[in-house]
Amino acid sequence: MSISTSISDIPDASSLERKANKVKFELELEMMLSLANPHYLLELSSTGYLDSEPFMNFVEYLAYWEKPEFARFIIYPNALHHRRLLLKPLFRQALKTQGHALVQKLADAQYEHWVSWRADKSKPPFEDGPTTATTST
Description:
Blueprint: H1 13-34, H2 38-46, H3 53-61, H4 68-71, H5 78-86, H6 89-116
Helix pairs in contact: 2-6
């Protein structure tokens, strides 16, 4: 059995760099989207990550997601808000001291926004959930 490799089989540096950038982008996007979950913020606090200078430097580094060319990939916009909150020592301390109560307030505010926000303000929001069409037989 012989192994034959031609020059065309070896990826060039630019394709390797593109692949590495894609992986980096996806991992950092996943981290940003995780910040939208208030329960994840509590987990970060209770495991000590929010006391870690390298981790907080990473949270600060993620500020580039605020730029429009990156923000368009954020499907949970409150992730951006939560990232900014995490940079505030007072908020990090509140996560430690208030724990689940604070997380519940964040989750409730997030839910209220989802329920009340709608693109077409002229239409009333669903009162008992979306109506479904029924067919008679």
